[in-house]
Design brief:
The protein is mainly beta and 343 residues long. It contains 4 helices and 22 strands. The strands form 4 sheets. Strands 1, 2, 3, 4, 5, 6, 7, 13, 14, 18, 19, 20 and 21 form a 13-stranded mixed β-sheet that branches. It is globular, with a radius of gyration of 23 Å. This is Phage late control D family protein. Pfam families: Phage_GPD (PF05954).
Amino acid sequence: MSHNKPAFAITLDDQDITSKIYPRLVSLTLTEARENAVDELNITIDDSDGRVAIPRKGVKITLQLGWEHSGMVDKGSFVVDEVEHEGAPDMLVLRARSAEMAKPVRTRKDRSFDKKTVADIVGQIAKDNGLTPKVSQSLQSKIIDHIDQTNESDINFLNRLGKRFDAVATVKKDALLFLPIDEGSNSKGESLPTITLERRDGDKHRYHTASRDAYSGVRAQWHDPNDAKEKSELIGEDDNPKRLRHTYPNQEAAEQAAKAEMNRVKRGKATLQFTLALGRPDITPMMGVRIPSLKAPIGDTDWIIVKTTHSVTAQGFTTQLELETRKGQEEKDAGAVEESEQK
């Protein structure tokens, strides 16, 4: 049986350079992350004979990644924003970010939104950037009384807004997505699958959980205009609550923010790193994962992917997953208490 070989296809400035890079490739690493919305591609090329030209910054790269026996997955377009040449031995290093993030969506702006729904806000920002808005149905009609975008990029602003609803904003294939973290969807609005892995699929894993200094709840402050006093909403228990710094304009906004932060606290109580011995380019952040062959409670937990790191070297093609627990995993153990109180 022939040994399975990693496969990739790369274009640079619309020119296929796969055959030129293949014998010179030292490493190729693609990192896809949920939180910062920017996919990063790093390519290191052997230039010991001095025959590799240094590309200009701003040039576009496309990448397909997979295996010779099963085909490749389109991983998108990237724009080179860093170039290094080092030696000896001489190496050329290219660092690129997803092409969608090179658009004005990362330009800092100042503006305000009043009495707008989430769908209105995301729709306006998508229109400004020539993108198609994709907003979860569960979030579309949420009303924002007032929010400021001050010297802040559109994508950072939307991710800050998303923290009120435990949601995340990202750009994929010319679509601006605004989705709850646990409602993983692709750029077509289709739900991402939950995949099942086995321990034998992985080279190694690392599970971590700790109760030391764990927050028992979240408290968010809000201003009550009726009596000109600050009040607060508590989600969870009051033993060791996390206090949000922002003061919200009303009780509903404070409650939403506290609930969203409590979900993040719960997910972060347990984390898992799992490295696949044979890379899976089809696996992306926000997919659900189960690994039932790992011992309890790891194998009993529903996980969600925070970050994927695909790596191709002379040793092969691997994929490292960084995961956290899905929302609600500990809800039966953690009580939810909501209260208003004067400060």
